[in-house]
Amino acid sequence: MPVTEYKPKIVAFCCNWCSYAGADGAGSARLSYPAEVKVIRVPCSCRVNPMFILRAFQRGADGVIIAGCHPGDCHYTSGNYFTRRRMTLLFSMLDYLGIERERTRVEWISAAEGAKFSKTMNEFCATVAALGENKRLEDLRCKK
Amino acid sequence: MQRIGVFICHCGTNIAGTVDVKAVAEALGHEAGVVFSTEYQYMCSESGQQLMRKAIREHKLTGVVVCSCSPRMHEATFRKAASLEGINPYMVEIANIREHVSWIHKDMKEATEKAIILGRAAIAKVHLNQPLQAGESPVTKRALVIGGGIAGIQTALDIAEAGFEVDIVEKSPTIGGKMAQLDKTFPTLDCAACILTPKMVDAGQNEKIKIFAYSEVEAVKGYVGNFNVSIRRKARYVDETKCTGCGLCTEKCPQKKVPNEFNMGMNNRHAIYIPFAQAVPKVATIDADYCMMLKTGKCGICSKVCGAGAIDYKQQDEVIERQYGAIVAATGFNPIDAKAYNEYGYATCPDVVTSLELERLMNAAGPTNGTLLRPSDNEHPHTVVFVQCVGSRCTETDERGKPYCSKICCMYTAKHAMLIREKYPDTDVYVFYIDVRTPGKNFDEFYRRAVEQYGVHYIKGMVGKVTQNGKQLRVQASDLLAGEQLHIDADLVVLATAIEPDKTARSIATMLTASMDTNDFFTEAHPKLRPVESPTAGIFLSGVCQGPKDIPETVSQASACAAKVIGVLAKDKLTCNPCVAQSDEMLCNGCSSCEKVCPYGAISYSDKEFRGPNRTTLIRRVASVNPAVCQGCGACTVACPSGAMDLKGFSNKQIMAEVDAICQ
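The joint structure predicted for all components is written out below.
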């Protein structure tokens, strides 16, 4: 079997107002991060249903990151506070299920922080790559 | 089944340089439901849009995916083009293959693969898109301007000129802001008060403009067209409607030892005061921190001398509520505190002053009545040293300063130097600079005049240390061009301190849900194309709160801002965002979880009749969303335990389809 370099699959949920714009900022400034990161745009980080994260792991994602506005700066006033509380609960549950804590992450990245976006994604990718493939929740029936 | 068309943009070489656009078009063309797939050089151009419209017509497309730049850039463009061909604009999705792919990845194979995956995710989403109809909401035809400096005044005057009501909320007792404190303005050297105060009077007399001075915005609710704002009118202890501004009370007040903030604390005022002679509104204010009557109950002289009977020691703060269609942030700036810069001796040497202090020292209405005298001994200084970039253009490691250029310092220092040399030709003036930046109409000519005609000594290099040396100040500096160390004995040192956004700006931004950058300047919706709008609909930016600016720029931005506000107020109805939450009444169990998390109070409950088994009728409590109030954050969709609540345009199914496509 040929040895291929392992590349993790990473889903990044970014809120439209801060982090998605931050990702655009990273692009405009040509601050690279691994192509394994794929961004899904959501109106607010609080739109991210824990179901989406479970679904991602089920479908073979190796890491999931949720990025939103800094606490206090939410475009919808309080959305990211909900995210913070919900994700704390979800992540500890995932940890209990055997999905390593490092595979999930919440970050606050503002529209002006392209550099932080790129840095965060680089770090997160390296962390997830070090953990290796995630098979704990993967539903093999979903594989084509 | 949708009939989807896929359009891949080259964006010149921006995308095509790193992404194999032909391969992407080929790959996405084989996706289920895709009936047409092509690439084009510039999709956003007129011909690109025509190409898309033609394909919609010819292939009877029901959905469109454009792989191009960020949706924040051209989503609206493509939606509009699609709607011209009769497709609902919300059937268009953008896959961001420029900012998220071609600009960050260098390897063509990798970038092409990622572009295909993002395209697939967008296709998967479009399959589940529903046509959405935007609702309408009425517009309150009144604007609020927060901040009464030159930016706020100009914006208010222009909005009023168009026939709309405007309120100015200013936290200090008078409008005028920083410009009122300036002596002369560059590059024309006309007096600041002479050009500002007529505008202040205009604002004060305009019947469309209402000034709430000595007031602060306390809470903002609502959304574009329908803001509800609570304004705290701080107690002046003087009835604004009765006070004539005669100023008798301010002369008779026995408490004379209050630092005068208008003169940068360089002289004193009374506890009851009018900040300056041309204040608008010209009404006295009692400073509660110093007033003997308010502190000890003994005095009451102002009340005795006031012929109008305007003094009211029992006055309380009052909170009023007003409705607005649009809000302008014009919160302005302050110079940074120079005390952090120990090396320049600002905290210890009285003859080290900031530039704004120098403005007051040179102003006819200032503490020295316009004669330039040193603060320490009231002597005329013979050697003046200006230090540029104090706190501006600092490296990241310097926590005292700011990374940005404050933009105005080079020009006002040239102005100061010129004014001093003109009035006092016997004075030697040195300016230590890193770079002299003079972009602007007639700016470089102005600076060269300072050097060539007025003989101001410009020295490239930074000042290392300023120390007290007897009656004089010893300035140690380096001359980078001559490559030598300099020691100058100066009588006065002037620090060109960086400017920073006003301290209240952060809390106001939070109330307005407007975003800020890391330096606390308000972020504009687009740095080039939408410079006076905030990303939050209905919030506009005027003046330095958005970034450092001089007066001409501030005034032009203020007028531009007014034009945008008028654009909102002139409409009778605004189109709402149709991507709002929606509750499935058949699934809702009336638990109230969604209502609790809604930041807008958009969710209400009502008892509804449902058909039960055996022809019975059941009454159940179910949630419904007011689409005019909902802003579409989606907090409720996650809180809902029964899955009844979903967000249009970002539904659970749509996002999961994207997840599936990405993880495939």
